[in-house]
Amino acid sequence: MKLIKIDNKRKAKEFLDTARVLYKNDRNWICPPDVIIESIFDRKKNSYFKTGEAERWVLKDNAGNLTGRVAAFYRNEPSGNQKTGGMGFFECIQDREAAFLLFETCESWLKEKGIDSMEGPVNFGEGDNSWGLLVEGFTPPGLGMNYNPLYYREFFEAYGFEPEYTQETQHLDLTKPFPERFWKIAEWVFKKPGYSFEHFDKKNPEKYAPGIAEIYNSAWKEHNRFSPIGVSKVLKRLKEVRQIIIDDFIWFVYFNGRPIAFLVMLPDMNQLFRLFNGKMNPLNKIRFMFLKNSKVVTRSRITIMGVVPGFQGKGIESAMFWHLQEPLLIKRPHYKEIEISWVGDYNPKMKATLDAMGAAPGKKHITYRKTL
Fold first, then answer.
1. pLDDT for 80
2. Which residues lie below 8 Å from residue 202, measured CB to CB, with a gap of 6+?
3. Has domain 2-166 been given CATH number 3.40.630.30?
4. Rounded CA gap, 110 and 370, in Å?
5. Under-70 pLDDT residues of the chain
6. DSSP character for 79?
7. Is the separation of the CB atoms in 180 and 358 below 8 Å?
8. Which residues on neighbouring strands pair with residue 253, listed in sequence order?
9. Is 176-335 in CATH node 2.60.40.640?
10. Are 160 and 369 in contact (CB under 8 A)?
11. Phi, psi of 164 (to 5 degrees)
12. Where in the chain is the domain with CATH 3.40.630.30?
């Protein structure tokens, strides 16, 4: 076996091609656009390089065939009593020796940087993309959701990774009616004075970015490895997904004019990207622009939803979902499903809300940690 560090464009292409080689016979896998993966490792595009580093490798067998890949990274930000690094974008043939070599490479590199523990598989970026190891629900993934073979779990646990937390993805079948009790809770919220609701306007993102940052920083501050976000980062993220944003898929709740909750839902463009095999060349860009407003996309994905403390458990979530009825059931009845992502085992309130909605289990991802 030969391990190769990524240090030029040709090798960077091999890093991308590794996944295409390993999944060529897997009908469920959907290749993410190459530009998305490459932007994560672009110092000019990824702000996390301002406080951290990243390194990538590919693995080849003695015949020169691609057999694996991995990335390691860290940020100079405190995390409890340990300095934590990450590993991700792991792909490997079904060979424990090869897998362990990739893990050991990340571990050695992180140790040299003074890192005490390693999380994986995670992303060198935001936690709503490429995060966690898929252990249940081996069906076509939504955009940004990790997909991997079942045998990866044995590799991680045999190497000494231990589960840190689990995140579930649940599914709402839009062809079935919501429980009546759920709408009664929403109606109860509407009768309370002070509440107002407004959907996003992508022509004016500056209006909403401060509210998103305020709600996020308040709602997630008690979560493990919380890192506050600023308005500039929110605007950058909104710009990145601007082409796929549908204004009335994103909702905000205000109480006496103060932002207290938001919900971000996006069309699942993986239903289109599966046609392109990661290649967003000029022709595929034209195909994408044509198809994105067609009825090919039938699933949406809620990537993030937050309610500030003090308003949690008061039916705000039900009220936001009520406002999705017209955008989905009336304006776009070809949408048949909502995927609700990243519901952590540390968030029992959200899990209870989904149970009340009649959401069905979909996927489960485990984020692992190993002390170095």
1. 47
2. 238, 242, 245, 247
3. yes
4. 12
5. 77-82, 127, 224-226, 345-347
6. B
7. no
8. 197, 261
9. no
10. no
11. -100, -45
12. 2-166, 176-335
